[in-house]
Amino acid sequence: MHPTRLDHVALNVLDPERVAAALLARLPFRVLEETHDFVLVGRRPDLGKLTLLRSPEVSEPGALVHVAIAVPCAIASSSVDVGGELAVELVPGDRDGEVDLDHVALRVADPCASARAWLDLGFERGERIGCSERVRLGNAFVELRPGVTPTTERPALAHVGLLVESANDARARAEQTGLDVRRFVEAENSRAVFVSGPDEVEVELVEHLPTFALV
């Protein structure tokens, strides 16, 4: 798939505006885009972002343990109080870096098998932490922790977004490799193909159009 970075994490929340306000109170984020259906927050369009999707009901953790954001000036990890639907952690980042997505922690049945599936999507193998596996993409990673994923019809994690140069090329490669292509979406500032990823985590392979830099 040749993704270049972890572009965003999409989360299902009951009140996107409230969660966005809690994040903006702790981070130098801004609202990059807002509609009735979602609020997109981040430092800049070219850095890691959170897409807060409006859910009709309170979501449940499911496979998601937490989302972590790297903060250059932080000297210790802390949490953002965004309610009981999901966990957002702030972790120390590169002092010369930006406020950016650091990692997503997921609970999976078989971390080794899951890691291999993420490698097939273009990630690189990272370090092993105890029984957990990490797979890296640029400066960010996905941490795969062993455990039983609670069954839920209202998962907090909607999808993981990976930046690609061409969504059309990504769709062609996905079809060639036998991935389950769920849909192709063309929006004002982006186009994306959604595929069924490891452990039934939906993955968005998104291409930013030139207009997205102006958001």
Explain this structure.
The chain has a domain at 6-152: 2,3-Dihydroxybiphenyl 1,2-Dioxygenase, domain 1 (Roll). The model has no long low-confidence stretch (mean pLDDT 94). The radius of gyration is 16 Å and the shape is globular. The protein contains three helices and 15 strands. By secondary structure, it is mainly beta. The strands form two sheets. It has an eight-stranded mixed β-sheet, with helices on one face.
Give the % helix.
10-25%
CATH class of the domain at 6-152: Alpha Beta
Q: Write out the CATH superfamily name of the domain at 6-152.
A: 2,3-Dihydroxybiphenyl 1,2-Dioxygenase, domain 1
The rounded distance between the terminal residues' Cα atoms is 26 Å
Biggest sheet features: 8 strands, mixed
In CATH, the topology of the domain at 6-152 is named: 2,3-Dihydroxybiphenyl 1,2-Dioxygenase, domain 1
Order of helices and strands: EHEEEEEEEHEEEEHEEE
- Find the structural class using helix and strand composition: mainly beta
Walk across the major sheet and give the strand order. 2-3-4-1-12-15-14-13
Q: Give the CATH architecture of the domain at 6-152.
A: Roll
Shape: globular
Radius of gyration: 16 Å
Mean pLDDT: 94
Weakly predicted, low-confidence segments: none
Report the count of strand segments: 15
Number of helices: 3
Strand content: 35-45%
Describe what is shown at a glance.
Helices cover 14% and strands 45% of the residues.
